[in-house]
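Office hours follow-up: a student asked to see two folded examples consecutively, so here they are.
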Amino acid sequence: MRAVSALFILGSVSVSAFAPSSLLPLRTSTRAAISSTRGRLGLRMSTPVKEARTQVDRDQDNGVGQDSERKAAEQLMQPCPLTTWGQPLNVRDAQASLKNEELPAYPLELSNPSAADLDAQEKYFADNKEQILADLQKHGAIVMRNFDLMKEPQGFERMWKALGMEACLDPLHSVAGRPVVSGKNAVYEAVNKPSRSKFFVGMHNEMVGKRTVKRAAFVCFKKAEVGGEFIIADGVRILRDLDSDLISRLYDRKIRFSSAELPMGFLDNTGPLQPILEPVLRSVLGVIVDMKVDFEVDMFWNRVDGKRVIQAHAPPQPPVIAHPDSGMPTWFCNIHSHSAKLRDERDGVLPETTGASRLNKSDVFYGDGTVIPDADLKSIDKVIKDNMVYVMMNEGDVVLVDNYRTMHGRNVFEGIRKHAVTWFK
């Protein structure tokens, strides 16, 4: 009976376990404005605040108040596009071409040119949309400052519509992986959940195997009292700076991600039923995931710290692609956010988060499932850290990113943080 009960329980939570990489926990130092200065941020929260916020977390995990917002989003938007992996590359030649190229500034800064009222600001974006989008492709990211228009969801929507961009659903909208701030305005929450305030969000491109958003606009409605900077990194510069032999190994062997880990320790107590239950559980969980999410996973049995688990692995992926529009080679790989080794080294012991996030125990392997050496992970980590740009956003500031080129993340924070995002085709 216990095994049967566990089957239904795990089936109900397995789908929600596949939260975006942006919800995975990491922690690191703080920066101010646009900066690369290092420094540790210490966080202290009182018990009453922790208890109050935990209830907020539970409400978010249970979808309290989300039904109407999600329905509004579904009426407004279509799923995000299929991932464009492109043709195979000669990765050494691709990297070598970048070492001889003078790259444009990253990110590009764009400040309000003096348009005072909201209508004038909207008109500015409409009149300059071709140049802004061309600059986005050229630079990879644009930081927009001093616009009152984007201080609330309706004005934020006016901005991106003036640029002629078409919004799409979150890659994991079907499993409510990210709360909807305003469905009618196509705005999603950008990892403000209180229980994740002490987790650093590792650098990643917003993709879930089959589907990848083309662009994204991240907006600040309220900055945190301390920390919470938005972080970006240029995949082109990361590719340029990585060790050539390392890039060749990763590209030739490809990368495979484990995106969720479900505890199955009870199977060790099922005696002769164990060999019968294992394939049944694996098949049922696989069917449930296939019904609910639009990406491929393979289910693997494993042991972690001596305990039996079942892990969901994505298909092998190349870590480098040619940008689907510009053709420029770029690093397009979420090792920084998914590697358990890097996460554990940065985090140490942190408070437990709530809900489905407790199952988001990701890791990364070579395409054949073998372990990537620690030295290689540390080398990747260093290059990405060296290229991270910390952007302190104020109310109404927007960071527009080319998602195939720019990785993004978020610093730890104190207080209430209200940042949001809209994804685009």
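And the second, which I mentioned at the end of office hours:
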Amino acid sequence: MEKKILFDFKQEYIEHGYVELETPADKSGDYAMAKNYLHIWPRDTFMLIALPNLDRSFTTTLFMPFKQFDQLTTETAVTNFFRATFPDAVKLIGENHLVKSFMDTKPSSLISVKCKPYHSGRAVIMGDAAHAMVPFYGQGMNAGFLDCLMFHELMDQYNDNFDLVLPAFTKMMQPNGEAIVDLAAYNYIEMRHLVNTWSYYFRKKMDNFLYRLMPNSWVPRYTMVTFTLTPYSKCIEHRDWQDKMLTRAAWIGGTTIVAMALCAVLPLAQMEDYLEHSTRIGRTFSRVVRGTKSHLGYSQFFLRHAWRYSD
């Protein structure tokens, strides 16, 4: 495909690699941690994760910049690093087992692929051949299965006419392939860094609240990507719309509070004169002041017109 004219191809390695370790079953033969969860140790620029296996062990993976891996070349350096950054994980894995496994394993690389089109003549590419991605959304296999499902539906729609099916497949799936590659890369930042921030938890609670309130119109991004057949590109578009709505709501809420506070402490004539010589927002307030006869009227008028100035 790369030798074909007008075939676009982009292959990108990120500056982070990974080493796979193992957290064995505990002394009783049971899982050493709760089994129905993805366990994450986020450390801003790197992270450790653990996924349960059927034999009651956990596949435990360290994702980290290669330049930091390069500093862990001795058993002492490895021991000190894990004791300082993942002390509870050291107890679960076992220090000797951890150090031996780490020293015996070379960090592997992480790659993503974007390309266009997905077909040439009667040939078509799907899955990792078309959109390889980093593993942080857990959607690599799902995206491949989705390619197969959509291809099957297009075969039915166009009565097995490959001259129609293949271009339609590229048109439908290529934007979604690029979208999930981008989503997977972003989720690495979320997993290793953003989960440590208060804003992440606030947004998470806000999304869950609005989802319960409006399940058909406000679906959290992770839910859309993981548990629905919403096209990946539409998941990004919908999240952008949600961001815009929350920004507008915050803008309106904040400016309305300021407006009501000003109404409470300043005479309307004095406030109008002050705001008339201020910024665009100030001039907006000034028009509101001129259109109100009371504090209540001021607030109502502002709410009706604030949307126009929130973009």
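Two things to take away from it. The chain is about 55% helix and 15% strand. The first strand starts at residue 8 and ends at 23.
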